[in-house]
Amino acid sequence: MKYEIMGSFSPAVQVTFDTAGESMYTQSGAMTWMTDKIKADTNMKGGLGKSLGRLFTGESMFMATYTAEAPGARVAFASTVPGEIVGINLNEMNGLLCQKDAFLCAEPSVELKVAFTKKIGAGFFGGEGFILQELTGSGMAFLEVDGNKVEFELAAGEILKVDTGNVVAFEKTVKYEIETMKGFKNIFFSGEGLFLTRLVGPGKVILQTQNFNDFVGKIASYIPSK
C-alpha cells in the first residue's frame, strides 16, 4: 500500500493498493473517490459491542471497508473540515489515544475502540476529555486535524496543558486528566474554556490550532434568532 496526501486547505489521502485483497476501513461517508476494481462493504466492524461503543464517540455504528480487486486500484478519503491529515504508523508507537472526531481511516490491522477516562466525573464536565478513541495494532492510520497540526515530544514528567478541543491525539505512555481553569476571573472573563487537558510525558502529543466547537459557536452567534 502507498498513500499520498493531496490538497492543503481541505485535504484528502489517496491510497494505492499494491496487491488484490489489500483494504482500508473508514467511518461512513468519508470516501471521496475511487477507481474501478474497488469493492465496498459496509459492516459493524468489530461486532455489535464495539459498534455500540462507537455511538458514544458520536460516530456511526457502521464502518465501510474498501478492498482492492486488482493491483493499482485507488481510493481516497477526505477531511470533513479545513485542516490537515496526518498519517500515523502504529508500528512506531506505543498505541494512540485520539479525540472522538479525529479518526479518518486505517488499515485492517489497526484496531479502533472507545476508551473511557478513569475519572468519570471529570469526563461528564470535560467535553472532549471524557470519551477518547484508542488505536492499537500495526499499520497505518490517518487522523483529521482541524486547522494546523502541532506536535510535541514530551520528556518524562514534562507537563503540557491544552484546551480540550485542541487535543488531537497522544501516545498511551502520556498520562492525562481533566482539570478546571484556576481563578474566578479566568473562568468567567478570560474567554477560554472552563476545562483543560493536562498531559504528562513521556510521549508524543498531536494538537490542532483550531477548536472546531468554538468555531461553530462563533458562527452560530451571528445567526439571527426570533
Key phrases:
six-stranded antiparallel β-sheet, Double-stranded beta-helix, 226 residues, 4 helices, mainly beta
Characterization of this structure:
By secondary structure, this protein is mainly β. Helices cover 14% and strands 47% of the residues. The protein has helices spanning 47-56, 120-125, 184-189, 212-220; strands spanning 2-6, 12-16, 23-27, 31-34, 38-43, 63-68, 74-78, 83-89, 96-99, 103-106, 110-116, 131-137, 140-146, 149-154, 159-163, 167-171, 175-180, 195-200, 203-208. The strands form 4 sheets. It has a 6-stranded antiparallel β-sheet with strand order 5-6-3-10-13-8, with no helix packed on it. The radius of gyration is 18 Å and the shape is globular. The model is unreliable at 120-129 and 184-191 (pLDDT under 50).
Task: Look at the structure and give the mean pLDDT.
Answer: 83
Gyration radius, to the nearest Å? Answer: 18 Å
How many DSSP helices?
4
* Number of DSSP E strands: 19
In short:
With 226 residues, the protein is mainly beta.
List the helices and strands and how they pair.
Elements: E1 2-6, E2 12-16, E3 23-27, E4 31-34, E5 38-43, H1 47-56, E6 63-68, E7 74-78, E8 83-89, E9 96-99, E10 103-106, E11 110-116, H2 120-125, E12 131-137, E13 140-146, E14 149-154, E15 159-163, E16 167-171, E17 175-180, H3 184-189, E18 195-200, E19 203-208, H4 212-220
Antiparallel strand pairs: 1-2, 2-7, 3-6, 3-10, 4-7, 5-6, 8-13, 9-12, 9-16, 10-13, 11-12, 14-19, 15-18, 16-19, 17-18
